[in-house]
Q: What sequence folds into this?
């Protein structure tokens, strides 16, 4: 078997155990290289990627959301969502309100200051996304999106879209 690019990057002497292993490791390596660049950008603004994601969710909704709803919408699973929201609140980027109908439910909304931070990040984030994916043309981007959705459908078959045949 010939040596491939990832094998060289990882300085892996032997080949991969399977094509699936090679694909997974390529995906993990690519994610890591993209993610670190976003971490650096967000760190300049005092945020983590998870905190940025929470702020974007809240801004996109436009109305306060329950904490569990926010957790269900995040890009990556957030085990410590309460702690993340605590830090965002301490920084003045979000505020909490207890539900008047069910005191157990806590709503969170983005503050004007939080929106300001997001507004400052809009262009740099869009520029970074473009820069990191510039090697792919529009058709390749659509193909990549479709392939990644197909992988997620295999991982979460209950969330896969159903096709109606009629």
A:
């Amino acid at each position: 078997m010939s040596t491939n690019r990832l094998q060289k990057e990882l300085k892996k002497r032997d080949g991969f155990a399977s094509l699936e292993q090679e694909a997974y490791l390529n995906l993990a390596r690519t994610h890591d290289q993209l993610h670190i660049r976003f971490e650096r950008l967000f760190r300049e603004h005092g945020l983590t990627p998870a905190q940025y994601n929470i702020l974007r969710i809240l801004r996109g909704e436009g109305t306060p959301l329950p904490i569990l709803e926010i957790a269900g919408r995040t890009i990556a699973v957030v085990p410590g969502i309460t702690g993340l929201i605590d830090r965002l609140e301490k920084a003045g980027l979000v505020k909490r309100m207890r539900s008047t109908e069910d005191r157990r439910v806590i709503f969170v909304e983005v503050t004007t200051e939080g929106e300001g931070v997001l507004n400052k990040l809009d262009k740099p984030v869009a520029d970074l996304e473009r820069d990191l994916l510039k090697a792919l043309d529009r058709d390749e981007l659509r193909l990549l999106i479709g392939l990644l959705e197909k992988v997620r459908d295999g991982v979460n078959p209950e969330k896969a879209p159903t096709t109606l045949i009629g």
The helical segments are 5-9, 19-43, 49-61, 67-73, 81-90, 112-132, 138-155.
